[in-house]
Amino acid sequence: MDQSQRKSELLEKYMNNSCTRQEFDELFDLLKQSDNFDDFDSAFKSHWDDAPNTATPKPANWDDIQQNVVMRLWSMRRGRVRIKYFIAILLICSSALFLFNRYQKPEAPVYQTARTTAAKTKVVLLADGTRVTLNANSTLRYPDDFNADKREVYLTGEAYFEVFHDENKPFVIHSGKLLTHVLGTTFTVSAYPQLASPLNVTVLTGKVAVKHQQANALAVLTRGQSATMNQGKTQFELTKLKNPEDAIAWIDDKLIFENADLKQVATVLSNKFGVNIIIKDKQLANQRITAIFQGQGLQSILKAVTKITHTNYTNANNSTYTISTN
């Protein structure tokens, strides 16, 4: 290959973004040493004619730069000098643009926050098509767009997730000390901030990995499996549900307690009705019940719960209830 062909080949490779660092240096050396630029003309003209008119990123206004360069070049007298400087400036500008795109920091995501109050639920549609249903007294913080290599959201409270499958971008939920990692599936996460409230993940479809960051406990769950981390424990309590859809019964205003202890019942009722339910006796708090309630008010549910557990409840004011054996 003669030098004329080599010049044309190197310029063509550079313009197609396929030259190596060594070839790039060789091209610059040829530009600096050459007195005859006709060898570059065919490759340059072909690339210029075929180049799309694309927008360039901010903050550099490359259109203005190009226009300014062209005006200066056409004011020059000698055509070969015009080509020489045009190519040199084009390479410099292209290199600057490449470095700008290569090393600029990604923009910080803009987050939105969705909240629910007592006795209210809300559906939130995320940018990737994921659907999140928030239970009462819950908060979801999520980005406008998922531009990073994973999709991350932040939950306080309880939510049902229907995650859009994307094997290239795992979906991660931060909920207190729980970290839930999925690709695409349906599941619930319960992480209310109350001290006595257990942390729970229940899978309806697919597979979910859940980790408790403080205890360093890890569990991988499939359909119908539930992982619960109780206060003071270092391992998940794993259970298998007969009907996994019971975990989202609250969406239909239904409460299903299956072998749930009384402190769990108190937490659910407190969040649903926006009250504070106190269980005076620790042993009583561990007593378990199985019951289903739908469309019933707080007073009606408390009467049923205390009847099942052979206890009583008192109402000191409109927002505080106490369950005891007295």
From TrEMBL:
Span of domain FecR protein: 113-208
Gene3D superfamilies found in the cross-reference section: 2.60.120.1440, 3.55.50.30
Listed transmembrane segments: 81-100
Domain Protein FecR C-terminal: from-to ranges: 254-322
Keywords annotated in UniProt: Membrane, Transmembrane, Transmembrane helix
One Pfam family matching this protein: FecR_C
Segments forming a coiled coil: none
Family matches, as PANTHER family: PERIPLASMIC SIGNAL SENSOR AND SIGMA FACTOR ACTIVATOR FECR-RELATED (PTHR30273), PROTEIN FECR (PTHR30273:SF2)
Name of the protein described by the UniProt record: FecR domain-containing protein
Native source species: Mucilaginibacter roseus
Lineage: Bacteria, Pseudomonadati, Bacteroidota, Sphingobacteriia, Sphingobacteriales
